[in-house]
Design a protein that fits this description.
5-stranded mixed beta sheet; Endoribonuclease L-PSP/chorismate mutase-like domain-containing protein; RutC-like_sf; 60s Ribosomal Protein L30, Chain: A; Endoribo_LPSP/chorism_mut-like; 160 residues
Length: 160
């Protein structure tokens, strides 16, 4: 009996986490959803959209941190959906999550940006283990496109 492929293992792990990959979203402007340069994949900013519907809009609120973390988790799923699309569906080609950059829609009193982005970071760690550990920046913005609460972009190292 053969061993499951890395792609199969990662997709099974998503299922164990109660998650599935959404369809890769179509850009909302004059840009491409990702660019590959060598073995690096640069994924454009992804919002908390599932099946074309935007979830978790409006500014983050410290009193409801779990909702904002869930928005970041959805963004991370969309990053993975774009990576899967770039790799013809094979998540096993992801060698490492290199870097995340996240924006949190908030006001000047909000200080939990890093905690919000942990929603995405934890997903990558739960899915990839040490290969999911990455560099990161979390920043605030007074508004984001379409009123989304969180937007995340990523740099991912791919295997040939």
């Amino acid at each position: 009996m053969s061993q499951p492929s890395e792609n199969d293992r990662l997709r099974q792990r998503l299922t164990e986490l109660g998650l599935s990959l959404p369809d890769a979203t179509i850009p909302q402007g004059a840009y491409v959803p990702y660019v590959r340069s060598g073995n690096l994949l640069f994924v454009a900013g992804q919002g908390p959209r599932l099946n074309g519907m935007l979830h978790h809009t409006g500014p983050a609120d410290s009193a409801d941190l779990p909702s904002s973390q869930e928005a970041a988790r959805i963004c991370a799923l969309n990053v993975l959906a774009q990576a899967a699309h770039a790799c013809s569906g094979d998540l096993g080609r992801i060698e490492r999550i290199v870097r995340l950059a996240g924006l949190v829609h908030c006001d000047a009193t909000f200080t939990a940006h890093a905690s919000v982005l942990d929603g995405a970071s934890t997903l990558f760690l739960d899915l990839f283990g040490e290969r999911g550990r990455h560099a990161r920046i979390a920043s605030g913005a007074v508004s984001l496109p379409s009123g989304m609460r969180v937007e995340i972009e990523a740099v991912i190292a791919l295997r040939d």
